[in-house]
Amino acid sequence: MSKDIFILPETRSWRDIPQQVKPRAMSSEGRRRLLMKAVRATMGAIVFSGVAWGAWEVAEVVRDPSAIPDAAKSERIRSLVLVTDGVLDKDWLAKTLALPSDATLMGTDLMKLRSRVLENAQVRSATILRNFPDTLTVRISERSPVARLMAQAGSDRPRMYLVSRDGAAFEGTGFDPGMVDSLPWLDGVRLARRDGAILPIAGMVAVSDLLASAKLEAEGLYRTWQVVSIERLASDGQIEVHTKDGMKVVFGTREDYLRQIARLDLLIDANSDPTRPLRVVDLSLGAQVPVAYGTASPSIIEKPESASSTPAPGPQITFPAFSNLQPAARRGL
Amino acid sequence: MGSKNTYIGAVEIGTSKVTALVGEYTGREIVIIGYGECSSRGVIKGSVVDYRSATECTHNALELAERDANERIDHVFLAQTGGHLEGFYNEASLNVKAADNMIEPDDIRTVCELAKSKDLPLGRMVVHNIRRPFRVDGRLIPTSPENLVGQRLEVGYWTVHGQEQRLADNIHVIRGFNLEVRELVLSSLASGHMVTSMEERQNGVLAIDIGAGTTDFVLYRNGAPHTTGVLAVGGGHFTNDLSIGLRLTEAQAEKLKVRFGRALVQARDKSEKVWLDGNFSIGDRQFARQAIESITAARAWELMEVVRKKLGQAFEPEACAAGVVLTGGGAKLPAIADCASKVFGTQARLGEAPSWVNENLRDPGYHTALGTLYYGVSAQGDRAALSRRKGGFLQNMSRLFAST
To answer: Rounded to a whole number, what is the distance in angstroms from the first to the last CA of chain B?
Structure first.
C-alpha cells in the first residue's frame, strides 16, 4: 500500500534550547550542587566498578579453579555439617561423600559431591555450601516412605525397597524398623532401571493418598492392610488391598477415598456374622458395592446339625449387597 | 520516606515575587512539603532583564523551599509568562485512508502532525501545542477518534510560541541552580487549571490571572483550552497610574491602591478624603477617595476590555456558561469581579484554590505556582502511562488538557 508523504516545516520547540550553563553563570549553591553531583557520579562509578571487578573475579574463579589462591586451596575441611529434615545422619554423609582426609574446602568439587549425595534416592534435594574457614555444610531434603516392596534383580537375593509418594524406590537408611514394618507391601509393580537408577513407580500419588486417608481416618483398618496391589491401577483405575485376615478390598481412584473407606468400615461393622466373613469388597463401583463372602475357619464355626446344611465351598457373591448406605439397607442385611 | 515518592519542584518567576514549591507525589496524591518565596528583582513583565538579580532571588526561593521540604529536587516545572508569548490556531484535515473508512492511529498521527506544523517567524519557539477536539465528518470527538468510521478527519491546535532568548533566559536562571527544567507550563494554563472545575471547563469558562506585570488568560471550551493569551499589563500598572495621577512614589501609590483602590467607582462624595499614611507623620497627605477609585477603575475596565478584544470572536457569552473566573494578586482589587461581569456581559467570580490546598497557599497570588505543581503531577502520571503507550509528549499533553 502506498504511503502518503507530507513535507512538514520543522517547528522549533523550547526543548531545543540547550540547558547547559557555564559554571560561572551559576550561583554558589548551583556550583555546590554541580560538584556534589559530580562527586556522587564518581562515587557511583567507583562502586559500580568495584562490584563489576568483584563479579569478574568470582566468575574467573568459578570458571577456572586453578585461579584460586594457594592459601585458600590449602585450607582443609575440618568439620562436616548435615542439615536434614529426615533420618539420615552424619555417618551416612561421611560414608557417602568419602572425602579424603586431606580434602580442602576450595579444592573440593561441590557439584561432584552433590551428585554423590543425590545418588541415594532417599535424598530429594541437596545443597552443599562452603562455610569458611573449614566447614562443609550439606543441606538435604529427604523422601518419606509410604509403602515397601520386595524386588529381585537377576540372580541376586531379593531386597526390600521403600517407596515414597513420588514413586521413588530406595533402600531406606536410618528409618525406625517398627515404622518400616507397619508399611504395607506394594504389589503388581515391575521396577525398571535407567543408567543404574531405579525409575519412579507410576501411580504412587494415588496409592499414597489412599493410604494417608486410611491412616488418618481409619487407623484400625489401615493396620490390617498387608498388601497394596496397583496391578490394575493404570488399566482399570483400581487399587487392591489385601488385609491380614484374607480380605480383598478394591478401591476405585475416581471416587473420594474417604467415602470408600467409610463404606468399607460400614460393611465390616454390618457384617457381624463370624461364620460368613467378607472375602471380596469392591468399592470401585460407587454406591453399588459387590461383596463376596467366604467361610470362616473351622475353629469359629459351630458344628453343623446335618451334612446337607453345610454351605458350598468357595465365595458366594451377592450382588448388590447395598443399593446405598442408608440405614434401611443396612437393616436389610 | 518511601523511595517510590517523587519530589517535584514548581517555580514561578513573577514580576513581584518568585515562588517555589516542592511537592511529594506518592503516586495517588500530592502533598506540598516545601514552600519558598522571595521578592522578585531583575524581572519586568515576566521577562528576565537582570540575570544576576533574577538568579539570586530565584535561587533563594528554591533554597528556602528545599530547606522547608528537607528534600532535594532534581527537576522543576517552570511557569512561563510574558508579553512575548503569542498564540495562533492552525487546523488540518485528511481523508481517511482505510477502505472501510475506519480511522487508524496512523491517520490520527498524520492529521495531528499536519495541524501542528506551521512555520514560525525566526527566533520563535513553540511552548505549547494545545489540541482542540477532533471532528469526524463534522462530528465533535473530544477524545480519540480511533476506530470510528468517517471519511474526513479534522483537528486543530492552539499553538503558543515565545521568543527564544526570553525562554532561554528563564531556563538558564533555573539551570544556574543545577536543576533541570522538565517542562515549561504556561501561567494561564496553570492558574486556570487550579481555579476552574472540570464541569466549568466543559461548559465554557474564561480564567484571567492578573499578575503584577502581566495578565494571563485562558478560555476553555468543551473541556479543553481553546484560546490563551498574555497581556503585558498587570497590577503594577494600577500602581503606576496612581503614582502619575496623584504624584506619588511607587511605594506610596501601592499603599493607596491596596487600601482604597477599587475596580468600580463607589464613592459618590467628591469631598471624601483619605489619608496617605493616616499616622500624622511628616509628609502624610489627603487624597480624594473618588480620584483613587476613578484611576484604578479606569485601568481595570481598560484591562478587561483589552482581554475581551484579544479574545475577539472566540469569546461569546452564551458559549461561556460558567462565566469569568479571576485570580492572581491583581484579583484582590475590590469589585474586580463586578467589573469583569460588566465588560464580558456574563457572571464573574474570584477563583479559589481546591480544598486540598494548605490555608497558607490559598491566596490568589499562589495559584500559578500551585497550578504548575499540579500540572507537574499530572505530567508525571501521564508520562508513566506514556512510556507504556510509547506516544509523544505533545500528544500526551494535549490528552491531559483535553481530558481535564
So the answer is: 30
